[in-house]
Amino acid sequence: MDENRKQIALIGAPLEEGSGRRGAAMGPTALRIAGIDATLIELGHDVKDEGDLCPLPAADLADHPGANELQTVAAFTRALDASVYAAARSGRLPLILGGDHALSMGSVSGMARHAADEGRPLFVLWLDAHADFNSPATSPSGNMHGMPVAFFCGQAEFAPILEKNRPLVEPGNVFQVGIRSVDARERKEIAAQGVNVYDMRSIDEIGMARIMHEIVDRIKAQNGLLHVSLDVDFLDPDLAPGVGTTVPGGATFREAHLIMETLCDSGLVSSLDIVELNPFLDDRGKSARILVELTASLFGRRILDRPTRSA
C-alpha cells in the first residue's frame, strides 16, 4: 500500500451556536458541494464520509451566564470527542467539517485521548485570527467559539462537559499562527500559560517558511502527533469572505499553501478541523473552494498538479 495514501474519516459538525450567529451550520454541506471528498479521492486517499453529527442538547448541564448555548455546544463536544477518538483508534485520520470553532473542544479532546493511548504528546497548530483562550470568566461575549483552546488546555473547567481527568494539551504544545485579534485579558492568559504565538507581525518579520520549520522541528523532536485547526478567518477576508469574524490583514494565498505543503512534507498531521465557514456570507462558494484547495495541499497536491481555471 502507498505509504502516502491515507484513510480519512469525514465528520460533519454543523455547529453554529458557539458563534452567536446563524450560518456556520451550513459549512459541512458547502465543503461537500465544493468537492472535498472527491478531491481527496482523486489524490489517492481512502475517504469515508461518516455524515453529520446531530446530538441532542446536554440536558444534564445547567445554564451558565458566561457560556452561551452551553447545552448544545457541550453535546457537540461530547459527540466529537467520541467520534474523533473512535476514528483515530480505527486508523483513520479524522477530518472535521465545521461548524464554528467551539467544535475543537471536542475534536482536540478526542485526539488528546488517542495520543495518550499512543504514549505520544499532542501538538495543536491553530491557524486563526483569534487566540480563542477565553473562559466564561474572561469572555466579553460569552460565545463559546472563543473558548476552545483554554478548554482543551484545562483552563476552562467551568462545567462538567467532559471528564475532568481526561488527557489535556500542554499550552506549550499549542502553536497559534496568524493571530491578529486578541482580547486584553486573553493576551495575559496566553502569555502566562506559555502558548506559542506567531502573530502577523512575526510572519512579516521572519517569514512563514521559517516559522513552519521551527514548529515542525519541535514536534518531530518529541515524536508528537499534530492536530491542525484551520479557521476561515486565518485567511485575509479579501481571499475568503465567508466567515462572520473577519479581521483585515490575514494570510495570503501563498502563505496558506506553504503551510499546508510544509505539513504534508512533514508527515506529522494526524487530524484536521476546518471551521467557521459561513456560506451565507460567502461569495459564490469562493471560501469553500479555497478551503478545499488548501486541504488538497495538505494531502499531497503539488503546484505542478494544479488545474488552470478559466477566468
Structure at a glance:
The chain has 311 residues and is α/β, with parallel strands linked by helices.
Share of residues in strands: 15-25%
Largest sheet: 8 strands, parallel
Distance between the termini: 39 Å
Secondary-structure element string: EHHEHEHEHEHEHHEHEH
- Total separate domains: 1
Oligomer: single chain
User: Can you give the mean pLDDT?
Assistant: 95
**Low-pLDDT segments, ≥5 res:** none
Structural class: alpha/beta
Tell me the name of the CATH homologous superfamily: Ureohydrolase domain
Task: Give me the number of helical elements.
Answer: 10
CATH uppermost class: Alpha Beta
Counting DSSP E segments of at least 2 residues, the number of strands comes to 8
Proportion of residues in helical segments: 25-40%
Cα shape:
globular
CATH fold description:
Arginase, Chain A
| Radius of gyration computed on alpha carbons | 18 Å
Strand order of the largest sheet: 2-1-3-8-7-4-5-6
